[in-house]
Every structure is written in C-alpha cells, then in structure tokens.
Amino acid sequence: xTKTRVLIVDDAIFxxxxxxxxxxxxxxxxxGEAANGVEAVEKYKELRPDLTTMDIVMPFKSGIEATKEILxxxxxxxxxxxxxxxxxxxxxxxxxxxxxxFVVKPFKPEDVQRVVGKVLGSAKA
Length: 125
Prior knowledge:
Blueprint: E1 4-9, H1 13-22, E2 28-34, H2 37-47, E3 51-55, H3 63-73, E4 79-84, H4 88-97, E5 101-105, H5 109-120
Parallel strand pairs: 1-2, 1-3, 3-4, 4-5
C-alpha cells in the first residue's frame, strides 16, 4: 500500500513534533516540515505532498496566504488548517481560500485522524 505523503507546517516545533507523532505509522510518510508560510509554499512546490497540515498564524506569510499560493500551483492540493481556539473567522477565511478542512488546537490524535480520514477518504486514514 502506498503511504500518504505529508508536509507539516507550523511555526512551533512542539506542534510539528506532535503532528509527526500522530502521523507516525504505516499509513503516512512525513516528507517535510516548514516553520512559516514562505517555507510552506517552497516545500510544497519541491515535495508535492498528498496532504499538508497548515498553521493559520505564522511569521512572514500566513497559512491562509500560503494555502492560496499552494492551490494556485496545484488546484487539487489537500490542505488541513490547524487553528487555535478563538480563530473562527480565520478558519472560515481559510476554508473560503480552499482549505479542505480544519482541526482546532489543542487537538487529540483522534481528532486529526478523523479529519484526515474525511478529506482523504477513510481508506487512507
């Protein structure tokens, strides 16, 4: 079975590590990490992952701006936004920008897995 290739984007290393732990296993392969929106777009173009987790609030370029740029490069890119509580308006903006779905921090592994399963189809989650 082919692994789902994942790019993890968050300015906080502990959040990237938490997501790496959630995606650890036979189903996923972490192909890259980025700490800001500029890096996210560069890494996406280079790696072409199947799934990207994207923090909304980051330095240099927001997750929303990065998502728009990624979707301009590849219109069927799958981006899941990771937002903090209280960022509902940003989440709506991200969905309007083309994000497939979102999870709210602090999240549980099962919350992330449920959303990933929904956006990729349950066969991959």
